[in-house]
């Protein structure tokens, strides 16, 4: 019975090849992180272990698009992977906060009569992202928590368009609304131009930094990426599709420190951003500390020299 929890683990009846019933252990846990662009994430079970979650192992949401929200409760079966003995796979993943997804009827209708060569997004001076080119909501659009996925079309149709790109237009100035700095960054956290293009490799970000008061800022990194669910990724043919994804994988409030120069400010911001998996040394682009330089630039735009102090050796 979907959504019925019996403590940290519950039993689900299965049948072996001989037809005999056998109990399959179900593990309860929470989502640690989920990368919608790369289509996988990790969950932590109540047993304290981490599990790899591929999007194809998540129960359907009624739109074809499958995703998880950080911190949400899930229940799953485990499968040991000989190639990753310390990181088992999570199978048949059920979302406990969403136990009864809407069942779909048929396949999705195309969104566009003619697929545009570029998908356009507009960012306003408060950091809000809109997709006016997409028109009215589509039945297979997806929204849950801080994840918005706009259905584009079937993968076969997208393949016919060579060089499909994303065009993002930012406000004319980094600070157009007092107390709000909006800038674009590439996947590695480096600032981009006001109007930039993306071929979706990894994804891009819109970094929104807001003054909470003279000593604190709130930072939100809104990621823009594209997901293609082709025949090699899905079991149900109705799951095939291409979605433009806008999500907020990073949100944090930070203290504005006193600093001697931009490099010092960047370092003091960097150490405030958690890196629980110690990704910075192995793969800097996998940690949100990559935004420390852009955040430092935003602070200097919002509060020019207000926290700048003279070096003790000056």
UniProtKB/TrEMBL annotation:
InterPro entries attached to this UniProt entry: CSD, CSP_DNA-bd, NA-bd_OB-fold
Source domain of life: Bacteria
Pfam families in the cross-refs: CSD
Domain CSD positions: 26-95
Gene Ontology MF term list: nucleic acid binding
PANTHER family the UniProt entry points to: COLD SHOCK DOMAIN PROTEIN 2, COLD SHOCK DOMAIN-CONTAINING PROTEIN 4
Name listed for the protein in its UniProt record: CSD domain-containing protein
Organism of provenance: Candidatus Giovannonibacteria bacterium RIFCSPLOWO2_12_FULL_43_26
């Amino acid at each position: 019975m979907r959504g019925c929890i019996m403590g940290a683990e519950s039993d689900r009846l299965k049948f072996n090849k001989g037809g005999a019933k056998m109990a399959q252990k179900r593990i309860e846990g929470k989502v640690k992180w989920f990368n919608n662009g790369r289509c996988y994430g990790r969950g932590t079970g109540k047993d304290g272990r981490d599990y790899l979650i591929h999007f194809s192992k998540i129960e359907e949401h009624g739109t074809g698009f499958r995703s998880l929200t950080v911190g949400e409760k899930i229940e799953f079966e485990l499968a040991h992977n000989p190639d990753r003995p310390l990181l088992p796979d999570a199978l048949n993943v059920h979302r406990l906060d969403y136990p009864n997804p809407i069942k779909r009827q048929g396949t999705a209708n195309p969104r566009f009569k003619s697929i545009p060569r570029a998908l356009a997004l507009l960012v306003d001076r408060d950091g809000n992202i809109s997709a006016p080119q997409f028109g009215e909501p589509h039945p297979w659009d997806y929204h849950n928590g801080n994840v918005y996925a706009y259905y584009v079309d079937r993968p076969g149709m997208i393949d016919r368009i060579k060089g499909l790109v994303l065009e993002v237009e930012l406000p004319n100035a980094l600070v157009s609304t007092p107390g709000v700095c909006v800038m674009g960054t590439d996947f590695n956290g480096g600032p981009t131009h006001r109007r930039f293009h993306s071929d979706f490799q990894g994804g891009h970000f819109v970094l929104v930094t807001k003054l909470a008061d003279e000593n604190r800022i709130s930072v939100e990194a809104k990621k823009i990426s594209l997901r293609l669910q082709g025949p090699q990724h899905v079991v149900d043919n109705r799951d095939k599709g291409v979605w433009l994804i806008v999500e907020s994988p990073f949100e944090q409030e930070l203290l504005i420190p006193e600093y001697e120069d931009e490099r010092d400010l960047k370092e003091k911001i960097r150490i405030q951003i958690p890196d629980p998996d110690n990704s910075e040394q192995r793969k800097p682009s996998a940690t949100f500390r990559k935004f420390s330089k852009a955040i430092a630039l935003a602070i200097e735009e919002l509060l020019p020299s207000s926290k700048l102090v003279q070096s003790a050796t000056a």
